[in-house]
Amino acid sequence: MKSEATQTRRLRWTNAVVRQCALGLGILVLVGAAAEMYVSVEHLVVSMSWVTHTREVEQTLQRVASDLTSAESSRRGYYISHDPEDLAAFERSVIGIPATIEHLRTLTSDNPHQQARLPGLQALVNDRIALLQAAVAVDSQNSIRSGDQSDLYVRGRKTIEATRQALAEMEGEEISLLAQRQATASAQARRSLLVTLGGMLLAVAFVAFAAIVGGIDRRHRDRAEHNLTRQRSMLQSVLDSLGEGVLVADRSGNIVLVNEQADRLLGIGLGPRNQTNWGTEFKLLMADGVTQYALGDLPLSLALRGQSTDNVRVLVRRPGASEGVWISVTGRPLHGEDGSAGGVIAFSDVSEQRRSELEVQSAHVRTAEALKVVERQAHDSAMLNKLVERLQSCRNLDESYKMIGPILPHLLPATSGALYVTSASRNILENVCSWGEARPGESNFATDDCWALRRGRVQATELDFELRCRHLDVGSSSPATCIPMIAHGETLGILCVVGAAREPSVHSQAPPAPHSNADQLRLSVGAAEQISLAIANLQLRDKLRSQSIRDPLTGLFNRRYMEESLVRELHRAKRKKAPLTVLMIDIDHFKRFNDTMGHEAGDALLREFGVFLREHVRVYDTPCRYGGEEFTVILPDADSEGALGRAESLREGARRISVGTQLGVPSGVTISVGLATYPDHGDNIADLVRTADAALYVAKSAGRDRVVVSDGSRVTVTA
Prior knowledge:
The chain has 17 helices and 18 strands. By secondary structure, the chain is of the alpha+beta class. It has four domains: 2-215; 245-349, 2-Layer Sandwich (Beta-Lactamase); 373-544, Beta-Lactamase, CATH 3.30.450.40; 550-718, 2-Layer Sandwich (Alpha-Beta Plaits), CATH 3.30.70. The strands form three sheets. The chain has a six-stranded antiparallel β-sheet with strand order 2-1-6-5-4-3. Strand 5 (325-336) and strand 6 form a beta hairpin. Helix 1 (2-81) runs antiparallel to helix 5 and helix 3 (97-107) runs antiparallel to helix 4. The longest helix is centred in the first third of the chain and has 95 residues, at 146-240. The protein is flat.
């Protein structure tokens, strides 16, 4: 019966799967046919639009020819009658031709062949219009000069023939394109029709097959339901007649009575059983479910000796049964006229109760395990949140690397590893932080040495069963996982984790560690994602900040940053009562240099001067591009005398700047410098910049190539 029921369920499951697959395939085919129809309609619409476009080009070409013909006719009419209306008609025809040609240029912008023909057509049309206008001018003189008329006529005929030929070529091109596009549209429509019809037929076939399978499944289901109803009826009648199991033995220990319930529970047939066979026939086990009852300790044996028992738990393992049955046994001795007559036991099935008790115990165990999992997950979440919080608070990449190293051992206990970041050259990975005792491998390696980067996904290395990355320690057999760090579509590096997770000691006070490789991989991937996002954000922040404060040509700070720095440095100078000097620098004769040598050479000179300034100022000085060829240098803690020496050094050093012979630029640059110092020449930014600029103006007026120191009302010149 069980085998038949299993086969029925398996058949029903198979039919259901086949039916669902057939329906799914039918739907997929219909969807594919609909998609194909939609794409075909889209292509048809595009083709029709191109056909319309081609028609419009043809009409425009015809309009050009018509306007030229109309102009020719009007000119001839004016030649014959000198009628002003003919002259006006001629002017109207001629004035619209340029606009028509421009419209034609716009329409054929997608056709390079037509665009190549347009200049020739336009030249021919212009020549023809010029000849017609010349002929009209001759006609307007009311005199006929046969030489002029003959010359104009010959030139006009040549121009007309050339114009007609150019128009015919362009119209032929459009007619050819129209034929191609119509042929493409027709082929697409035929293919769409075939695919749609075929798809519909195939979908109908799948649906019909699913219906047939469904009919077969319904017949099997009806038959199974009938058999099940009959079996349930029979089983119900048996269950209605059952009560507790009862077993009676005589004084000699021979079983004399067994009801159907007892037979079902004990697994023995009706009939006498010798007392000595109870242990092997019944396979009765104690409450622990393991220890077998001794024959003298059985409730029936105790009843035969005159002892009563109540609610004794016994596990009955029936012959041939895979599972035992728990019963609760109550035994009483039987007394006859001549003393003991035997014993009786009554028992009932308590398997469900026993199962409920075990389930409660199991639930307690599962609850404790779930609590451990929750604690571990809470710890993992706290560590991840802590990592995210600290990464978000970092101001630069170096600071973030110092944050990552101490947190990862707590997030991934019992592991070692390292964080590798892609270098600026994009072909080397550099170790920026590591943790644990095991050596993860090379400190720097090429991107091709890591399978995770080459495959673009997580690479788990398990001894010899997987590919092992070349950058890992060759002397180590510990399992390792390389996780690529990708953010915003850019590979930033890898997180390499070495060693498998282990269960913590029962006496350990550390937070629970992940107990499976899956947990460890999940945490590693989560940490890699957060780290990659943080690194990407910090890189983006550095890039945006650099773009906002740096001049893109020279690499120096821009004017905005100069103004912010002046506010900060002047405030600091006032607080410390220290001097602050501003240098205004101008490259002499830069405009003439730029006009003579070209903008490329001018840009090269500005770049080289920017490099020169960065290399010849102090670390805490601020070189800026003020605008054009003017530069500013902020010198904190520099008085006028010291700043004057720095300015003279810059002036002398500028003479050695070489832009490069490939641009044909001579070596040597001269500069003019204006100098103003706080508090001698001003106590605010506006005064300092103004006086320094005024000093620069004096330096340029005095012949350039010099340093001018301003004292507010006068300047001191050095050269």
